[in-house]
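Following up on my earlier message about manganese (II) ion. Here are the inputs again, as you asked, copied directly from the submission form:
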Amino acid sequence: MNIHEFQAKQLFAQFGIPVPKGKEIKNARAAEKWAAALDTSVYVVKAQIHAGGRGKAGGVKITKNKDEVPGLAQELIGKTLVTHQTGPKGRKVRRLLIEEGARIDKELYLSLLVDRDTGCPTFIASTEGGMEIEEVAEKTPEKVIKETIDPAVGFQSYNGRNLAFALGLPSIEKAIVNPFIQMLGNLYRLFLEKDASMVEINPLVITTDKTLIALDGKVSFDDNALFKHPDIQAFRDLHEEDPLEIEAEKHNLNYVKLDGDIGCMVNGAGLAMATMDVIKLAGAEPSNFLDVGGGATKETVAAGFRILLKDKKVKGIFINIFGGIVRCERIAHGVIEASKEVGIKLPVVVRLQGTNAEEGRKLLKESGLKVEVATDLWEAAQQIVAMKGKKKR
Ligand code: GDP
Ligand code: MN
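Thanks, got it. Here's what our run produced:
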């Protein structure tokens, strides 16, 4: 799960990581009120969406004139912001963060995540803050500094000194070396205690009066640990999530929306991945990842159908079931009843293998439903790709 910048900054403050004074607001009137309450010479108005690149897309406004704040807020609220991370459709701005501006001397990059290679929490830092870290990594990889933390030992101050020296902080500004190391420790504590999967501060700023401040904040959490953290759950913003993914979650379905036009319903995550691969190999694109799980029932199959059909791009449905724990004849019953209930007019290919597959295929063939029944994965994939779009919804 991702959260907004203002929420990340609330967490940072809780863990002793310095952030600018600010407040989340939803309209221009509140912006005026809050600007009046801030004691500063620079005001920053920031669009709150779950995507970076807002600065370049006009989502961050800076003014020295307090009276301009409500106008800038009015301009941003309700606007659809298109950044390099939102995709062409962009994201609607519903919330803003009004902050006191920082006087920037230097912008750094800092993040903490689990490195897949070492399996350890790893700090990533760079003197090239404010820029896309991917770009820095590509053009000047020597400017990306990593420090791996042994999870059994935890963060130690030598880890902090390693990073501080590799960044050249002592020669940039000696006075911030210790606050920097302390900040890293706090960030590590936040990461562990809140089961984060990634924390990113870009830019982490050294101000003209030599203090450190987190000017931006992005935190992602491990969904499987969210049940432990009601405070983090409360940060969830459904506006930022795909409506189909929200609905799938209600039915305990593992669904990820994609861009193609072949809807797939599969039991097991590995088979679901393989199914997407084979659809691509057959020349089409999957519209989704959907794992209905080991214990698929008529209800799960019906819920899966409904979700696939709500995606207007879908032109054909591919059901790929390997009966291990689940028995194929039960899936067949589920498909038959769910198709009648939901009323499917699209081409459907059902491939059944494993426990009671024969019986399942027979049931489907005799059901009178217009579904193609298959045994072989590759043939089934080619079949659905050939059939897609041949029938109207
Ligand atoms: P992002 O573009 O979505 O990553 O949004 P950021 O929060 O990182 O803001 C983008 C850029 O706006 C930063 O890199 C800064 O250069 C600038 N910026 C943000 N807040 C302030 C501020 O308080 N003072 C000044 N001078 N610049 C700021
Ligand atoms: Mn940023």
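One observation from looking it over: The mean pLDDT is 93. Hope that helps, and feel free to reply on this thread.
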